[in-house]
């Protein structure tokens, strides 16, 4: 897909919904400090101190990779963030970068480090982003591909990556909870 081709509408809806998770004051701008501080403050209620520190590293790296970009932006509009994530259509390494990042994020969400995420752990993970508790179970069920009541590392990383790199309507669309806009 060229830099000027229209982006797939379903993909744009997913990205818009993701942006809204972080645009807490609804001003159309996400600032790095809001992105980091808001999420990290919420992790204090369910992650051990060492995992909080790792999560902070992951989220700072995520801002730099996926939001701030090589320019080192400290705030971005929806359009800027969408164009940054649209690399998925130009950069063959983008999907792997996403998967690697979600592999690290799994370690934060897997609070007891047993290599699986339970419904409670997923609920705590989504709570960091302000997802309503009633929205968690449908999202969890969509990602629990073998319906054993657990999300494996593979299911988590694949769904997280697919949220950003697929254009079709599939279960990964619920990775961050329901669409918000």
From TrEMBL:
Molecular functions per Gene Ontology: calcium ion binding
Keywords: Calcium
Chain ranges of the EF-hand domain: 97-132, 140-166
The keyword Calcium is annotated on this UniProt entry: yes
UniProt keyword annotation of tRNA processing present: no
Superkingdom of this protein's organism: Eukaryota
Protein name as catalogued: Sarcoplasmic calcium-binding protein-like
Organism the protein comes from: Lingula anatina
